[in-house]
Design brief:
heterodimer; A: alpha/beta; 7-stranded mixed sheet; globular
Chain lengths: 343, 323
Amino acid sequence: MSPEPLLEVRDLKVSFRTEDGLIRAVDGVSLSLSPGETLGIVGESGSGKSVTMMSVMRLITDPNARFEGEVLYKGRDLMKLGQDQIREVRGAGIAMIFQDPMTSLNPVYRVGWQIEEQIREHEQISKQAAHARAIDLLTAVGIPQAGDRVDDYPHQFSGGMRQRVMIAMALSCNPDILIADEPTTALDVTIQAQILNLIKKLKDDFDTAVVLITHDMGVVADLADRIAVMYAGRIIEKGSRRDIFYDPQHPYTWGLLGSIARLDRPKPRRLAAIPGQPPSLLRLPPGCAFGDRCAHRFARCDERPDLLDKTGDGHLDACHLDPRQKKDLRETTIHPELIEEAT
Amino acid sequence: MLTFILRRVLWTALVMFVITVIVFIIFFKTPGVDPARALAGRSPNAQTLAEIRAQLGLNRPFPIEYGIMMKKIFITRDLVSYSNQGVLVIPEIGQAAPATLSLVFGAALIWVVMAIAVGIAAALLRGTIFDPLLMIVALVGISAPVFWVGQMANMISQSTLHGTFLFSWVPPLGYTPFPQDPLLWFKGLVIPWITLSLLYIGFYGRVLRANLLEVQNEDYVRTARAKGISERRVLARHTLRTSMITFVSLFGLDFGALVAGSTLLTEVVFGIHGVGYLTWQAFTNLDLPTIMATTVYGAFFIVLANAVVDIAYAWLDPRIRPT
């Protein structure tokens, strides 16, 4: 189908040993990313989306963490690399930006120094050249008077500006993949749009594939080529952006879409929400993890559903419901106001 | 930055002034304290007392009396000890200071290096048995009083095992000035240095470990790893630097206090005639001029150390730099 994937995650499992038992944070996730593609990973807090991508970068240092599965990047399994080899990949091949730009930069170093540190780690380049490149990068991410600001400290920047610095740093070594872990969650709404547009623009300029982790369907709607929806450590639906927004197959995805406030439809009396809480990762139910919160639960849901391509077009979902039934059922979930009007 | 330094200097002067006034009031003006009586010997007659008072300016109004005292300390430097008539106090402190400075600088060097090593080792070995083990050893170091450790060290190195090759190099107790014999200076100070630094190694090691563990979880440390830089560089450049902020401020205060005379116990135990020893003697004899002078000397170093800490602080953390 698509060209050779740049990154392929195969059946990744991450668990943490705790006093209360084993937490299965990621439970068999498979993903692939093609060059230049944008993949959105959507899910609520604790669904395992960040842990998945942090594991890809091997950034989880918790000694109680256990990893299984493969992460293939350019033919190499990152999970099997030594410390020195994974360091060559980090920053140069795969770069990452984080949720909170207020704390992600080291407060005691100048921003330029922090960018140069990364460049000089991966390339044989003079201090002056690295400095000049840091200024170019800051200009590219839209920081005015970058030549002066390069010598400022992080506390002299606003949150949005710091996230721009983080993006400049992430792109400093022309990575193949940029992982953006909730890059706009900590920012004001107006700044969010600016940062997303910036990522969109730079992704083309630098020809970088992007993995966008978010809990905001609105963010992926604008940016992602393909979307994976995660719930309780598993992917429960995966497909193109079109598939997910216009033909969602999993009731959890319906719930997510139904809880977006929309301006193009009649205003509902209350904003819809998915009832209940996600299950504890310590004691996952044997069947469908979403079963307890699902309005369409039936007998088969006590069996764990596999992520399958039922339609044969690359749109996968993990739900036992018959695809033919779903069309009617989901209308009631996504647009409850339609029913209210009918009755 | 210039106004910052200027403000610091003015502040220092003010603090010094307040300290000297308070000390002066405590030792010379507390009701029932009569320096003249202390000086005049047993059952003096009224005339002798009056003569002494006139000689020391004790019959003048308080501000003038204070002024005379300050003049004698800072300008004419001819303050005379009460208990050892004829001994000038200021030169005496000048002679005692090198011993204290030698003791404190050496001990500080040992404790900074060792505490950083202990702190980093414990933080890196977290989750293994060595971390709690190191922390217990550190706690023992903190809990063992200096005079006890000193006496034990003396007992072992001066008598019990002095005959063996282990401690035969240890010279008799006392301080040898560096210019006189550098080797003997060093030999005589090794055991006092270690004794004095034990408490601080334990304390600073624990503080640094706690700070390192806290900073290790900071987002910017994760960013540093995500940049692909080596673990060693992450530790040295990103984790350690911010973890040192508490360490440095504690160090400034302790160092200042030690130079100012908190080495008293160590000096007495090891027979080192430094400022602490001098202060101790002055207290036992109620030698008011010496107490006054050593207090001023001590206050000066503590205030100076504070100023240095403030500057080091600003260097370590740009967020608190004056703009």
